Amino acid sequence: GQQVQQSPASLVLQEGENAELQCNFSTSLNSMQWFYQRPEGSLVSLFYNPSGTKQSGRLTSTTVIKERRSSLHISSSQITDSGTYLCAGMNQGGSAKLIFGEGTKLTVSS
Amino acid sequence: GPKVLQIPSHQIIDMGQMVTLNCDPVSNHLYFYWYKQILGQQMEFLVNFYNGKVMEKSKLFKDQFSVERPDGSYFTLKIQPTALEDSAVYFCASSWGGSAETLYFGSGTRLTVL
After folding, report:
1. Which of A26, A42, A49, B51 has the fewest Cβ atoms within 10 Å of its own Cβ atom?
2. Closest Cα to residue A25, out of A87, A103, A79?
3. pLDDT digit string (tens) for B6-58?
4. Nearest to A58 by CA among A22, A7, A15
5. B35 with B88: CB under 8 angstroms?
6. Out of B42, B56, B108, whose CB is closest to A97?
7. In chain B, what residues touch A86 (CB-CB under 8 Å)?
8. pLDDT band at A1 (very low <50, low <70, confident <90, very high)
9. What's the CA gap between B112 and B114, in Å, rounded?
């Protein structure tokens, strides 16, 4: 099965609303990371968050290793937050390999 | 922050031709990666590379694909010959260490095979 599962697949918000994006990952992965993929395709690294909670501006990431989940919270969403949010984990053992989920496509409208 | 540069940003070629995608990784990084993303689909691992060698390649990394980093210059992905299904965006990434490291991604090269 999928090693990284993200939910929801898509999300539509009004500007100013908060968003909670979920990522569940298999026991074969750790060192979770979150990326933002702009509508035109380029990737922006948001968080490297193997465990615990990290915050950057309006974004907060929480990873709970024991529960094999990581979340990304976006507060007071803005139209420019629209795009796809990707969760990824590094495989344990073997060679360095980052495995991505299918992403959550976020649309923020006015 | 650290930047990974990919050249060119777009490439259009005819099926059967050879193409080389270039990546200029972060200067002190030791691990290099290529990922493939077909439009609207999942980011898929192709290959990783360390110390002049391929460490692991996925089943997407066909025999027509090859990677190298001659003399510490560009990290390249060569496809020879290209096929229609190779049309995708190819992302290069680099990291200082192997596991448990942040990967830094380039902006991608959009390859269109006609």
Report:
1. B51
2. A87
3. 999 999 999 999 999 999 999 889 999 999 999 889 999 999 999 999 999 99
4. A15
5. no
6. B56
7. 43
8. low
9. 6
What is the distance in angstroms between the CA of the first residue and the CA of the last residue of chain B?
36
Q: Which residues pair with B21 in a beta bridge?
A: B77
Q: Are B32 and B50 in contact (CB under 8 A)?
A: yes
The percentage of residues in chain A with a pLDDT greater than 70, rounded to a whole number, is 98
- Per-residue pLDDT tens for B44-86? 999 999 999 999 999 999 999 999 998 778 999 999 999 999 9
Interchain contact B31–A (C-beta under 8 A): yes
Q: Do A30 and B107 touch (CB under 8 A)?
A: no
Contact B55/A90, CB-based, under 8 Å? no
The model's pLDDT over A30-47, given as tens digits with 9 standing for 90+, comes to 889 999 999 888 899 999
Q: Which residue has the tokens 């898509």?
A: A10
**Residues near B53 by Cβ (< 8 Å), separated by ≥ 6?**
none
Q: A30 - beta bridge partners?
A: A90
- Going by C-alpha positions, the residue among A76, A13, A16, A83 that lies closest to residue A46 is A83
Average pLDDT across chain A, whole number: 94
